[in-house]
Amino acid sequence: MTQQWSAPTADGPVDATVPVPGSKSITNRALVLAALADRPSTVHAPLRSRDTKLMVDALRSLGVGIDDGPDGSWLVTPHEMHGPAQVDCGLAGTVMRFLPPAAALAVGDITFDGDPHARTRPMTTILDALRALGADVAGDALPFTLHGKGGVPGGEVTIDASASSQFVSGLLLSGARYESGVTIRHDGKPVPSMPHIEMTVAMMRQAGVVVDDASPNEWRVEPGPVEGRDWHVEPDLSNATAFLAAAAVTGGRVTIPGWPTRTTQPGGAAQDLFGRMGCEVALSDAGLVLRGPDRLTGIDLDLRDESELTPTVAALAALADGRTRIRGVAHIRGHETDRLAALAAEINRLGGDAEETEDGLVITPRPLRGGVWRAYADHRMATAGAIIGLVVEGVSVDDIGCTTKTLPDFPGMWAAMLALPGAR
Fold first, then answer.
1. Strand bridging mode 287-291 / 280-284
2. Which stretch of DSSP H or E encloses residue 318?
3. What Cα–Cα distance (Å) separates residue 325 from each residue in 277, 293, 314, 364?
4. pLDDT at position 117
5. Of 11, 32, 112, 245, which residue is least crowded by CB atoms under 10 Å?
6. pLDDT band, residue 334 (cuts 50/70/90)
7. Going by C-beta distance under 8 Å and a sequence separation of 6 or more, which residues neighbour residue 375?
8. Mean pLDDT for the stretch of residues 32-38
9. Does the active-site annotation cover 306?
């Protein structure tokens, strides 16, 4: 159900410390690796949101044991996967693209489906790749059915992953359990969001999997065991950028505790990005501290590797001084919604000036007015509307509930940051 929400306007510079829940990307990768492991694993400080709960429910439906630990962790006990099973992907790209290669190892029929918009998201690349590696798949998009045979021959496959790095990550995560391992070659335009593939490779190596990524656009996974281990999930840095943006647009200060000194998360690029727009950013023992300027500066930047930050950057750009050009993000037209079209439509609806280009946006600041900001069932569209609402009175987000995809209680966290009455 949609939930319209009046975005609160800040009555002055925001000054807050905001603990951010764990990374969705790390949590769901850890869950898949733990499900394929040779012994039980524990996922510490996982994100508990719609996307990760969908992954947990899907793995449980395939026979994997996942129990709640006393400290909020998940205890994962591997089990030979089996059908029949029905997997609800929701709008989670990590579920619809990471789980089919693992489910192909099961015995029996597994049917995948999701929210209505999920049926329009690109899936042919990974499903054709699974067929080439020896899996039996009926369908080319959601809904589709895997006829599991208890194993996958594996081998070499060439794909075009220019629409999503998740195609590569999904095949990599299960590749060690394929009889011949897997070699993936990319042939096409540059792969977007390469840090997410680097995250996948790093986590696989932590689980003892041998991965060769020395050649550009080629990844080789040797067949062998996946080691069970303790996984410790970092805060979700992409989610954190919405709260950092609150300091940026109000000239305030926000601290994100637990910000890692080194990370494979694309959100780690926020330090440089906010700095280029005029903010002061410093990493200390307290976490990442951002102080906003009197006025933000428009910039020209390529977000190919950090495309999930596009909605936050677009919101900042609509409130900045000077034009901002965002490049390299044509692939986000295939995310939860066409984010380029959606951002242009909503900024313009509030009186702004946003123009779509072939691979991004050009945003020229104009005085904004209140109105309804449509989220398109997209969590990052919703948080972009909240950012604008901090300094533009009368903004309401038509569906704040969609933020549960990656943040269990975004409205409560936003209210607490602003020290609003009744905030949790």
1. antiparallel
2. helix 310-318
3. 12, 20, 9, 9
4. 87
5. 11
6. confident
7. 381, 382, 385, 397, 398, 399, 400, 402
8. 98
9. no
Q: Which of 153, 112, 116, 111 is nearest to 131 (CA)?
A: 153
DSSP conformation class of 234 = P
pLDDT digits (tens, 9 = 90+) for 350-375: 999 999 999 999 999 999 999 999 99
- Residue-wise pLDDT for 84-119, tens only, equals 999 999 999 999 999 999 999 999 999 999 999 899
The two three-digit tokens of residue 266, written as one number:
């694309």
Taken in order 103, 109, 115, 121, is the CA torsion positive or negative?
A: positive
Q: Is 159 helix (H, G, I), strand (E, B) or coil?
A: strand
Dig out the tokens for 87 from the structure. Answer: 């997997």
Whether the CB-CB separation of 18 and 254 falls below 8 Å is answered with yes
Provide the CB-side half-sphere exposure for 410 (13 A, CA): 30
Is this prediction's pTM over 0.85? yes
Q: Among the options 234, 306, 308, 346, which is catalytic?
A: 308
Domains of the chain: 5-21+235-417 (3.65.10.10), 24-223 (3.65.10.10)
Q: Looking at the DSSP assignment, which residues form a beta bridge with residue 284?
A: 287
Residues composing the chain: 424
Q: Which pLDDT score, from 0 to 100, does residue 1 have?
A: 54
For 320-394, list the strands marked E by DSSP.
Answer: 324-327, 353-357, 360-364, 371-373
Q: Cis ω on the peptide bond leading into residue 84 (within 30° of 0)?
A: yes
Looking at residue 372, its pLDDT comes to: 97
Q: Distance of CA 279 to CAs 50, 244, 253, 276, 361, Å?
A: 32, 10, 10, 7, 22
Contacts of 32 (CB under 8 A, 6+ apart): 55, 59, 98, 99, 102, 173, 174
Name, in order, each residue with C-beta under 8 angstroms of 370's C-beta and a sequence gap of 6 or more. Answer: 350, 392, 393, 394, 395, 396
